[in-house]
């Protein structure tokens, strides 16, 4: 006997005023952006003051919300229904601009200018592995601080980056802070921190080797950058710890998004386990693009048997072809159901919402409303 799966009550989650942050996470290509936008729109139209932060480079969110272009500044979604007193803003993470803001807020104008103009910083802030995930969390922290101070928003919805692994979002702050505080960086700082006698023979050997690999000019640029950034090391670690702590509070709710596919649900399982291990509040699982029910008692085996009989009598039978299509669809539904049941067996306490595949691409507010209704309608 199959154990009943607890249902994710989306409207209760959105209407709960103690919920200040919703983080949509999961592997790439499972509909995180659409889910984030649909949740944000539904919350706004139910009376919440919402900002949705996306990291989707395809810019689908801007198009679906009728905004010509999104950037690092929240912009109002003018066609959202605000009759209930809510509002909706949307923005897209500008990774480098957010990194620049961190530097500018933590360093003196002179030191900030020195850092921002350094070629090594430009490369780090634009393309270093994990920077996008770290800056997504940094921007989340900024938005939350502003919301608390000014009352601009009472709900922030975050669409996490399309990473190879869903866990990258949680690991990025510590990884970036660890890099900035790493042994090599400290080694490069040694000449700037102490007197010449600290430049031991061993350190000279390492520096000479790096000069050969990187070139003298590049090594000097790296050392200049690291020396300028040295005073910010503690700030990076502190901000990472603060954001991580924010994600652990009761005011945050994680929604894990998956597709009814083995890899996506396996990634979702890893994320659920990680959230549990880190004491982070998990609201539930959303399974996107599920195949609609066949709404018939005809099994796949019965359909195949009937199709074989018809093919034997008439190889061009249209009915036989339709029966074959029906059998394929029923098997797909059964396979997806089996995958969901296997996930539920391993995680029996995770509330779940299943969203059927839409007839077409979601490209406007009406499409997002339809997704929001499907999320809420789990009867």
From TrEMBL:
It comes from Nocardioides cavernae. PANTHER family: ANION TRANSPORTER ATPASE-RELATED (PTHR10803:SF26), ARSENICAL PUMP-DRIVING ATPASE ARSENITE-TRANSLOCATING ATPASE (PTHR10803). It holds the Pfam family ArsA_ATPase. CDD domains: ArsA (cd02035). This is Anion-transporting ArsA/GET3 family ATPase. InterPro entries: ArsA/GET3_ATPase-like, ATPase_ArsA/GET3, P-loop_NTPase. GO terms for molecular function: ATP binding; ATP hydrolysis activity. It comes from the Bacteria. Residues 20-293 form the ArsA/GET3 Anion-transporting ATPase-like domain.
């Amino acid at each position: 006997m199959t154990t009943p799966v607890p249902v994710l009550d989306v409207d209760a989650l959105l209407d709960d005023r103690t919920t200040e942050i919703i983080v949509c996470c999961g592997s790439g290509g499972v509909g995180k952006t659409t889910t984030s936008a649909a949740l944000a729109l539904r919350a706004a139209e139910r009376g919440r003051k919402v900002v949705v932060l996306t990291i989707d480079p395809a810019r689908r969110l801007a198009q679906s919300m009728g905004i010509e272009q999104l950037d690092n500044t929240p912009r109002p979604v003018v066609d959202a229904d605000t009759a209930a007193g809510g509002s909706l803003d949307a923005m897209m993470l500008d990774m480098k601009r957010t990194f620049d803001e961190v530097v500018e807020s933590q360093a003196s104008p002179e030191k900030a200018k020195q850092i921002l103009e350094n070629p090594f910083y430009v490369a780090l802030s634009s393309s270093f592995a994990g920077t996008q995930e770290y800056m997504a969390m940094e921007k989340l922290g900024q938005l939350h601080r502003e919301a608390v101070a000014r009352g601009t928003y009472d709900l922030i919805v975050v669409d996490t980056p399309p990473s190879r692994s869903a866990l990258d979002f949680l690991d990025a702050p510590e990884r970036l802070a660890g890099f900035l505080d790493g042994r090599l960086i400290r080694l490069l700082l040694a000449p700037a921190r102490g007197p010449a006698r600290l430049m031991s023979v061993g350190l000279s050997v390492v520096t000479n080797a790096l000069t050969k690999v990187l070139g003298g000019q590049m090594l000097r640029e790296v050392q200049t950058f690291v020396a300028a950034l040295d005073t910010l090391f503690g700030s990076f670690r502190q901000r990472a710890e603060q954001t991580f702590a924010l994600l652990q509070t009761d005011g945050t709710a994680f929604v894990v998004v998956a597709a009814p596919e083995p890899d996506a649900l396996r990634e979702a399982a890893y994320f659920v386990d990680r959230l549990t291990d880190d004491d982070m509040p998990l609201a539930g699982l959303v399974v996107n693009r599920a195949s609609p029910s066949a709404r018939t008692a005809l099994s796949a085996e019965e359909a195949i048997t009937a199709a074989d009989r018809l093919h034997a009598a008439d190889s061009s039978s249209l009915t036989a072809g339709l029966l074959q299509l029906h059998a394929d669809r029923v098997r797909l539904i059964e396979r997806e159901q089996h995958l969901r049941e296997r996930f539920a067996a391993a995680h029996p306490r995770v509330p779940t919402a299943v969203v059927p595949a839409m007839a077409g691409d979601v490209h406007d507010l009406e499409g997002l409303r339809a997704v929001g209704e499907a999320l809420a309608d789990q009867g």
